[in-house]
């Protein structure tokens, strides 16, 4: 195991390193256990493990200073290190954002991008655009991607997270229900997809808070920030990825690879 890898038992402390960090930090939380797709990070898609596909895409970023896989299992760590990637071991934590915060406490960086391990279609240009958005608006705590829903069935699907935002693309609310309610034909509905781009101090603050009322009701972490009065920038995109959560998603991605 490389020097970059930590054990589960080392104490977690705020880094005292004052050396300027060379660029934003990208963290790929790779939790091995998955109820719907066992050992998901190690699942092979087109002959390459999911975690390595995500790592390949994140490495394309021109803005990232460092890309780290946050692993909770030695098999994932060994695979990533064998491919030349960097790993930090984490304990069992509630979410990917909590794993990203765990890594961010150790490594100084102005921005922390949480790239989910179920996103094999992530590309560096997407990460770079999110970093640029944070730089352009110092008042934003978190930036994420939203896409207009084209398939009406997605608007009522619980697994699709819907977003509403104001005229400045600042988030108003996120829900598993269809929002806004389509009383009139032609009402646009947007969904959240892909990574989270954080200011480091906002991520660490978020991870220190207990779950909030609306977050618990919807099971959506973004609501914790909104309930605390923090700002979330929604960046509209026309990219529509395939998130790998179930065997059906695997089959859809395999079909996508055949067409490509």
Question: Would you mind describing this structure in some detail?
Answer:
The chain is an alpha/beta fold and 260 residues long. It has one domain (25-248): Alpha-Beta Complex (Spore Coat Polysaccharide Biosynthesis Protein SpsA, Chain A), CATH 3.90.550.10. The chain has helices spanning 50-59, 74-82, 96-106, 124-136, 152-155, 200-208, 213-218, 222-227, 247-259; strands spanning 25-30, 44-45, 48-49, 66-71, 86-89, 111-114, 142-148, 162-165, 171-175, 190-199, 232-236. The longest helix has 13 residues, at 124-136. Residues 1-19 have low confidence and may be disordered.
CATH class: Alpha Beta
CATH H-level superfamily: Spore Coat Polysaccharide Biosynthesis Protein SpsA, Chain A
Rg calc:
18 Å
The secondary-structure class comes to alpha/beta
Helix content: 25-40%
Which fold name fills CATH's third level, the topology?
Answer: Spore Coat Polysaccharide Biosynthesis Protein SpsA, Chain A
The number of distinct helices, counting runs of at least 4 residues, comes to 9
Features:
single chain; 260 residues; alpha/beta; Spore Coat Polysaccharide Biosynthesis Protein SpsA, Chain A; nine-stranded mixed β-sheet; 9 helices; globular
């Amino acid at each position: 195991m490389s020097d970059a890898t930590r054990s589960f038992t080392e104490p977690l402390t705020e880094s005292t390193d004052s050396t300027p960090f060379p660029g934003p930090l990208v963290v790929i939380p790779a939790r091995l256990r998955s109820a719907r797709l066992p050992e998901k990070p190690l699942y092979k898609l087109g002959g390459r493990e999911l975690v390595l596909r995500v790592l390949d895409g994140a490495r394309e970023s021109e803005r990232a200073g460092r890309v780290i896989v946050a692993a909770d299992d030695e098999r994932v760590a060994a695979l990533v290190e064998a491919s030349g990637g960097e790993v930090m071991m984490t304990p069992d934590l509630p979410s990917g954002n909590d794993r990203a915060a765990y890594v961010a406490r150790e490594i100084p960086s102005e921005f922390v991008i949480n790239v989910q391990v179920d996103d094999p279609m992530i590309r560096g240009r997407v990460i770079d655009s999110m970093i640029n958005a944070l730089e352009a608006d110092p008042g934003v705590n978190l930036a994420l991607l939203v896409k207009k829903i084209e398939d009406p069935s997605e608007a009522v699907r619980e697994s699709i997270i819907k977003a509403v935002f104001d005229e400045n693309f600042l988030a108003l609310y996120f829900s598993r229900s269809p929002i806004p309610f389509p009383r009139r034909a032609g009402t646009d509905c947007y969904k959240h997809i892909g990574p989270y781009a954080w200011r480091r101090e906002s991520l660490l603050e978020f991870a220190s808070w207990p779950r909030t009322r609306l977050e618990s009701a919807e099971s959506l972490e973004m609501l914790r920030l909104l309930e605390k009065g923090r700002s979330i920038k929604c960046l509209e995109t026309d990219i529509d990825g395939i998130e790998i959560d179930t065997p059906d998603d695997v089959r859809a991605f395999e079909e996508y690879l055949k067409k490509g």
